[in-house]
Amino acid sequence: MDIEAFFEGMPFASLLGIEVTECADGHAEGRLEMTEELSWNEDELMAHGGVTFTLADTVGGAALVSLVDQPVPTVDMRIDYLDAGTGDLYAEADVVRCGGDVGVVDVDVYADADDTLIADARGVYKTG
Questions:
Q1: What are the CA-CA distances from residue 81 to residues 48, 84, 109 (Å)?
Q2: Domain map (residue ranges) of the chain
């Protein structure tokens, strides 16, 4: 499976401008450029929670795809929002467990400008 092409061809992630920048050996990284359309605040670019969640979910899935070489539908995801997501965002994900039926991935989302941790998430994805 061409992992890069798979994530480039994901319509919703493409709509938001999510780019998976690294994806190998159970680790993935991705970026999102903040735009007015993705902000919840009209006076300042601040990521809507759904945008932050989608970045975490996409990059978390990519980390697991790098191990199982197939699409991995999300079963469950829990996220804690720790700070406002101002400006561009990036996420880093690492597989915690890759089982025959499900995989578990931890994801951290950061504000690109100052590396502030703005959210942490744990995703569960179907692997089999």
A1: 11, 8, 9
A2: 3-126
State how far the Cα of 99 lies from the Cα of 102, in Å rounded to an integer. Answer: 5
Whether the model clears a pTM of 0.85, i.e. scores above it, the answer is yes
Look up residue 40 and give its DSSP letter. S
Question: Class assignment of domain 3-126?
Answer: alpha beta
Element (H, E) at 67: helix 49-68
Q: Do 81 and 110 touch, CB atoms closer than 8 A?
A: no
Place of tokens 């735009």: 35
Distance of CA 72 to the CA centre of its chain: 13
DSSP for residue 127: -
Pairing between β-strand 89-98 and β-strand 27-32 as defined by DSSP bridges: antiparallel
- At 67, list the tokens: 């191990």
Q: How far is CA 28 from the centre of its chain?
A: 9
Calculate the CA dihedral of residues 98, 4, 76, 53 and round it to 10 degrees.
140
Lowest mean pLDDT among 4-8, 80-84, 90-94: 4-8
